[in-house]
Amino acid sequence: MKVKQSIPKHLRFTVDQFYQRFPDDDACLEFLKEKRYPQGVTFCERCERDRKHHRVTGRPAYACDYCGSMVSPMAGTIFEHSSTPLRLWFYAMFLMGSTRCGISAKQIQRETGVTYKTAWRMFKQIRSLLDDDGRLEGPITVEVDEMYFGGRTKRKHALPKPKTTVLGAVERGVGGRVIARIAGDATKPSIHGFIKEYVLPGSVIFSDEHRSYDGLEGPKYRHFRVRHSERVYVTGSKGQIHTQTIEGFWSLVKRGIGGVYHSVSKKYLQNYLNEYSFRYNRRNCGNRIFDAILQRAFERAS
Q1: CATH number at residue 177
Q2: pLDDT of residue 241
Q3: Among 172, 225, 214, 164, CA closest to 191
Q4: Beta-carbon neighbour count of residue 293 at 10 Å?
Q5: 46 — alpha (psi -120 to 50), left (phi > 0) or beta?
Q6: Where are the alpha helices (H) located in 12-59, listed in sequence order?
Q7: Is 170 inside any structural domain?
Q8: Which of 29, 74, 261, 281 would suit a FRET pair with 169, their CA atoms being 20 to 30 Å apart?
Q9: How far is residue 91's CA from residue 96's CA, in Å, rounded to a whole number?
């Protein structure tokens, strides 16, 4: 039975379309040039004014038409000083944006032929672009919850590893954003500080009955709880008091990391949280998440 494509046509970006758009490194470099230096015009430091630049044969650089001074579209980006073909960088971004649960560096190694060390470094660099700064827009309806990541070990006599506390807030509604941050603990100062930083005053907050949420009620926030300890998961006259949305995101993160990456240290956990949050916040973009990742590459060029 033929299964109907769930992604609308205007939001699809298949691997065939990727190959047509970026057939080689030159096409990727030209794309970067147009994004950073539209029509090849950029500031020339030697001429001290905007000049037209043209491609230098055999080099990933463009030269000033007047003085010959060269600039590179890759300068200041994650591609700078990398011997990995630019098209492989773009392909790694395409795969990261096309999957829901993530893709491992080992899979990139198998598909492209680069070393595992190179594949791991590429993904590390790409994830450095994916943090979404800023508060949740509001006033809005927000679910807040804490997650404890890791802490288990398969070794029979080994001491259990400490769990890492992660705090998260998700905006309800179509296209609602999520923010997830590593925290030192789930105490009242940590949770209240997280909420004050990322949730605008006037918002409605839903949480579980954790004691650290005490004191949120007041002029700044309207606060409602659902009592999980009593096996109550949805309450309210219209069933609006729950934390199912943020718990669904935690499930996506845990199952994704456990199934794809297997294990993530506390040192790099925030980068992986940024990756999952980035995709979740653009879940209505279909396969066009790749374009959003690519946009970050030249927007954050130094």
Answers
A1: 3.30.420.10
A2: 85
A3: 214
A4: 22
A5: alpha
A6: 15-21, 25-36
A7: yes
A8: 261
A9: 9
**What's phi and psi for 169, nearest 5 deg?**
-140, 135
Q: What is the pLDDT of residues 173-212, one digit of tens each?
A: 878 899 999 998 999 999 999 999 999 988 999 999 999 9
- For residue 171, give its domain range: 141-283
pLDDT at 35 over 80: yes
Residue 291 CB neighbour total at 10 angstroms: 14
* Distance (Å, whole) CA 223 – CA 142: 10
Which has the closest alpha carbon to 275: 96, 140, 107?
A: 96
Residues 221, 259: Cα–Cα separation, whole Å? 37
Query: If DSSP states are collapsed to H, E and C, what string results for 164-199?
Result: EEEEEEEECCCCCCEEEEEECCCCHHHHHHHHHHHE
The residue behind tokens 């395409």 is 94
Which ranges of the chain does DSSP label H, i.e. alpha helix? 15-21, 25-36, 86-98, 105-112, 116-127, 188-198, 244-256, 266-281, 289-299
CA distance 272 to 279: 11
Please check whether residue 277 lies inside any domain of the structure. Answer: yes
How much is the pLDDT for 6?
A: 76
Q: In this structure, is residue 183 part of a structural domain?
A: yes
In a domain? residue 41: no
Q: Are 293 and 96 in contact (CB under 8 A)?
A: yes
- Segment 8-24 shows an average pLDDT of 90
User: What percentage of the chain has pLDDT greater than the value 70?
Assistant: 95
